[in-house]
Give the backbone structure.
Amino acid sequence: MKQWKTIALALGCATLFSSFTAKHEYYVSVGEMSLNPTTNQLEIGLRIFTDDLEYALERAGHPGLDVLNDETSAEHVSEYVLDHFRIWNEDGREIKLFYLGLEGDADGVFVYLETKVKSGLPEEVQVRHAILMESFPDQINILHYSHPDIPTSLRFDAEEPTQTLELQDL
């Protein structure tokens, strides 16, 4: 009987400690993009697992970076995010995005971007959302475009990191 208690205790501890590991079986980030009519800004918020972002930054040459506490992390996060999340108008010209910062905790961070919309939205844009795809081949990124009449969602993966977002009917 004592053996069974020892085995049960060992299995319970193994299960408990394995639930605290930083690894997870799925790789998904979710983002939100919307036009703020008051400021005429296209606002973007991307939710990313903290450990995955730090791993991608490590692979990009920034080992041991703590994105929540290192003062130097903002520059590296900005560079990484702006390289992997991009938008082009229908003429193929890139729309310049500005990194505003991030907030979060050990589980996940929200990264914020924006751009000024000078003369209304184009009819369609190309969006490349390849964040974490170089580090995790199964990474899926979802981007919700909020519009009061027609909300739209796009799904990005390694095979299709760039999608067309049609805005003409919005």
Observations:
- Residues 24 and 52 are 10 Å apart (CA to CA).
- The chain has three helices and ten strands.
